[in-house]
Amino acid sequence: MAHSALYDLHFLLIPLFLLATIAPSIHQSIPLGTTIFAVDENSSWVSPSGEFAFGFRHLPNNDSLFLLAIWFHKIPERTVVWSANRDSPVQRESRVELVNNGHLVLYNREGREIWKKPKAINARAASASMLDTGNLVLLSMDSSTIWESFNEPTDTILPSQTLTKPSKLSSRRSEKDYSKGQFELRLQEDGDLMLYTVPLEGEFTYSNYWSTNTAGSGSQVIFNESGYIYLTQINGTSVSLTPGNIVSTQEFYHRATLDFDGVIRQYVYPRTLDSTVGWAQSWSNVWYQPPNVCLAVFFAIGSGTCGFNSYCALDENQRTTCHCPPGYSYLDPNNTFGGCKQDFVPQSCESGGSIEASQFELKEMRNVDWPLNDYERYFPINENLCRQECLLDCFCAVAVFKDDTCWKKKVPLGNGKMDYGVSRKTLLKTPRGNLTLQTAPPPTSSCREKKDRTALILIGSVLFGGSGLLNLLLLLAISMVLLYSRHQRKVRFQRHDASMLGIRILSFTFKELEQATNGFKEELDRGAFGAIYKGALVLESRHLIAVKMLDNVVAEGESNKEFETEVAAIGQTHHKNLARLLGFCNEGLHQLLVYEFMSSGSLASFLFGSIRPNWNQRTQIALGIARGLVYLHEECSSQIIHCDINPQNILLDESLTPRISGFGLAKLMKADQTRSITGIRGTRGYVSPEWFMDMPITAKVDVYSFGVLLLEIICCRRNLEMGLENEERVILTEWAYDCYAETRLDLLVENDEDAKDDLKRVERMVMVAIWCLQENPTMRPSMMKVTEMLEGVVEVSKPLHPYSTSSVFS
Q: How far is Cα 261 from Cα 320, in angstroms, rounded to an integer?
C-alpha cells in the first residue's frame, strides 16, 4: 500500500485526536444508583446527541432474551456495536445498575451477578456516561476515566477508537446470534494485525488467513475521526487499511466490524436524507479484507469458513454465502455458516460396502472442491475406475478426478469452496432414487452377535470359575510387567548425557513430554505442521529441548509402525546444518518430535529484528542452509523434500550456524513420492507455483522457497511488506528482479555499507536467487548447483525473467 499525503494528514490529526480525548468530554452524567431493567428498549442511557444508547436489546430470534449492549440509536436498524454478555443473554426483568459501591453490575432476574466493571475492588466509579463517540465510560470523582467500553471491543470499532497491543475483535456466531463466533482479528504483541479462525470452545487458534505483515514494526490501529483506519508503525510510518477516498463522518455514520463470515468490513450509513444521493438508506460496505475469504481460509484442521460438509461461495455482491451439497441440509436452518448434515443413511460398511454400492450414485458438482480431506489417492487411473473405487468404498463420500489422478474423501468435509478456478471434477456420493431422508434402521440381533455373546459368556465362566491360584499367578505376572515397564521408563530418563547425543532415537510417552514442557506452556513458534514448545529433560544434567506437536500430519490409516519407521529414517540424518532429532512420541492421537534446543532462536527473529545482522554472517548462513538442503535432497539414503523452507524453520545455534528444522514432516504424511498434492504444504510467500497447478512435486519446491529466503537474507526484509512508500517494493521477489534488470542492486542493500562494498557478491547471490525462482521447476538449478554458484565454484549465467517460461508447462 502506498505511503501518501493521506498518511501525513493522519499524523496531523493524531495530536488533535489525543487532545480531544484528554480534554473533558461533553457528557451527561449518570449518577450512582441508576438502574435499567430488561423490559423494553426505551429504557436506556442515551448519548447527548442521541446517536448512541446503552441498555438492553431483544435478541432477534428470541423476544424473551436480552443483550446488554450499545447501539446506533438514531437509525432504524439500531445496529449493535458492543455487548457485555454476548455469550450469556439474560431474561426479562434482569437489570444493570451503577451500584453505590462504584461498580456497573449486570444481574439476572434472580438477582445473581452476571457481569461487573471495573473488576478491580479498589477502582470505584462516581458516575457513568454514554458518549457521542459510542464509548461507555465510568468516571472517578475527578472525572478521569477508570473503565471504558472502547478498551474491551466485541466485534466492532468506531471512529476515534484505538486498538493497542494486544487487542482483538471476535465475530458473532451468525447474523442473529451475538455469541462469540469462529473468527478473530488480533493486533498481536509483535505488531502484526492478523485474521484467525478459532474453535468455538477453548483458546486454541488455527493459523492466520490474512495479515498486514507488520510483525516487529506495528504499533496500534487507529480509526480516526475522519473515517480512516490505519496501522501506525514504530518507525513513524503507517499502513492504511481504508481506501484513499472515503465519505465524510460529518455526513455518514461509520463502523468497522469483523462479520460472522470472517471478513473485516468498514461500513457507512447516511446521517440524513440529504446524504443519500447515490447511497442506499442502509449500511454500505466501502472496504473489506480478505478479498475472498472462501479461498483465504485453507487449513488442515478445522471446518473452514462455512462449517463441515458445506461449501463457501461469493454472491454477485461479493458477499460470502454457504451452501449444502445435494443430499445434505443445514445443521441449523437459522445459521447457514454452521455446517451441513447428511439427510440419508450412509452406506453400510457390511462386507466392505460392496453390498450397498448399487444403491448409491455419484453426482458431479461443477467448480466445487473440498481440497484437504483426502484419505486415499490413486495414480494413474481413469475416471470410470475412480468412480467405481468410491462407490465400493463405504468410507468414500466424495471422489475428485483430474489428469489420471483420483482422490477419495470422507466426511466430515472441511474447507469447502466454490470457485471458477477449480478445474477438478468433483463427484458427490448420494443415494439413488428416494433413499434420502431415511431413518437409521433399529438394531437387530444377528446370528453373529448371538455367537459373540455366547463366546463372551463362556470365556467369563472359565475366568471366574477357574483355579484361584491361577488367577493369583496371573495378577502377580501383570504386576511384575507393569513394574518393569515403569522401571524402564525411569531408566531411560536417567541415562548418561552421551546417550542423548548418540545415534539411537528415544521413544517418549505423551505424559513424559507434557511434564518436560511444563504442560506445553512456553510456545516457541508455530509453523505449517504444528506448534513448537520449549522443554527440558532432566538427566545427569539438564538438556533443553524443542518439542514439535504435529497437527494431524499422518494420514489416517497409517500404522504406528510405519510412523516410527519414518521417524527412525529422519533420525539417522546427521549434518551440521540440520536440527538434530532426539526422539519422538507416537501415542494414540499424539504425535510429537523432540529436537535439540537452539539458543539463538529462529532466522526470522535474527533477520527481521531491530538490529541489522552482519553482512558476512548472513552470507555464511545462506551457504549453510544451501548445504543442509543438498544433504536432504542428494546425500540421504532416501531423498527428503522439506516442503516448508522459511525463516521460522531455520534455527541458529550459539555460533549462528543455521540448522534446518521441520525436515521430513511432509514425508510423515504418507505422500506419494511422485505426486504429493494432498493440499498445499508450506508457508505463504514461500510456496512454489507448482503447488497451485496440480503438478508433480519434486525437490525443486525447496529450491524455489530457498530463492525467496535468499533474497530476504540479502535485503534483511520480508518477502511481503505492506505500507511501503514505494509500491514497487512491496513484493521483494519482483522488486529484486527489477533492480537486477536495471543494474540498481545497490537499492536492495542501500542501508548496509558492508554489503554495498561487496556488490559483486550481492549480484551473484541475487542472480542465484532469480534462477531459484523460475516458475518452471525444470529451469531451477539443483541445490548442489546452487551451493556451487554461491561458493563461486561455477559461473552464474544471466537469469531469465522468473515468469518468462510459464508457457512451457502451462
A: 7
